[in-house]
Amino acid sequence: MKPRESRARVDAVRRLSTAILEADLRLEEPPALEFDAGQWVSIPFGPKTVRAYSIASTPQSRKVLTLCADVAPGGLGSAWFRALKPGDEVRFKGPLGGFVYTRADPRRPLFVAEEIGIVPIRSILTELYATGFGRPVTLVYWARDPGWLAYDAEFRSLARRYPGFAYRPTAASAAGAATDGPSGLAEAVLRLVPDVAGLVAYVAGGEQTIHRVRDVLVAKGLDRKAVKWEKFW
Ligand SMILES: Cc1cc2nc3c(=O)[nH]c(=O)nc-3n(C[C@H](O)[C@H](O)[C@H](O)COP(=O)(O)OP(=O)(O)OC[C@H]3O[C@@H](n4cnc5c(N)ncnc54)[C@H](O)[C@@H]3O)c2cc1C
Hints:
Blueprint: E1 4-17, E2 20-29, E3 40-46, E4 49-54, E5 64-70, H1 76-83, E6 89-96, E7 108-114, H2 118-130, E8 137-143, H3 152-161, E9 165-171, H4 181-192, E10 199-205, H5 207-219, E11 227-231
Parallel strand pairs: 7-8, 7-10, 8-9, 10-11
Antiparallel strand pairs: 1-2, 1-6, 2-5, 3-4, 3-6
The structure holds flavin-adenine dinucleotide.
């Protein structure tokens, strides 16, 4: 879909944890938005200042989009998200980005998320399972603390219902676990992904994590181009 200037109104705001908020935006113009799971919208804050937010909901819901933010960074975007309340108007440009999963891709998908990097992956996985994806999928998800694993209960429930979904959350606070995202995820991928044959990886989070995880996968023999990434910070 071509990105377009859009206008929406906040329907609801929910707190998922101390610093993670969700906001539902009801589209006004256009009245419905087509997008692919994994895409994001751009919120303008000035002539050259924008913040990107991935769409947490799935393309099945075209009239109401859910965004989800970690407001701990505390800059412009966090302050804006924290202040959102029902009835507020939101202008954005979207949908944008190519961090999308192609169902026709015969490779085995591995998703790797560092904290709030889970948002586009939540949209992709929810859509895949809602529309009958029978193939194995692995999600390796790291956060500083279990309370920062947004959507953890949803993923646990998916894993119970679909034995092909291997959900591997790790929190830095667990005994013996690495305390930073890049090391935590690189170690987890090293341990949990023994075989990279026929794999395609989707990594979202900070730049250092993307590099470390890609290095681990490439060292195991994966083609660099089989690692797709979305850099949040
Ligand atoms: C394609 C894309 C999609 C994104 N989707 C989301 C999303 O769905 N939800 C979301 O919360 N953010 C998302 N982001 C990040 C978002 O655009 C903002 O950067 C973030 O909200 C922080 O903005 P800020 O103005 O509060 O802080 P800033 O002033 O921009 O950042 C302050 C500092 O914190 C660092 N930082 C930013 N975010 C994090 C973080 N989560 N953890 C650790 N350090 C961080 C920045 O690099 C900077 O050094 C996305 C970014 C991109 C590029």
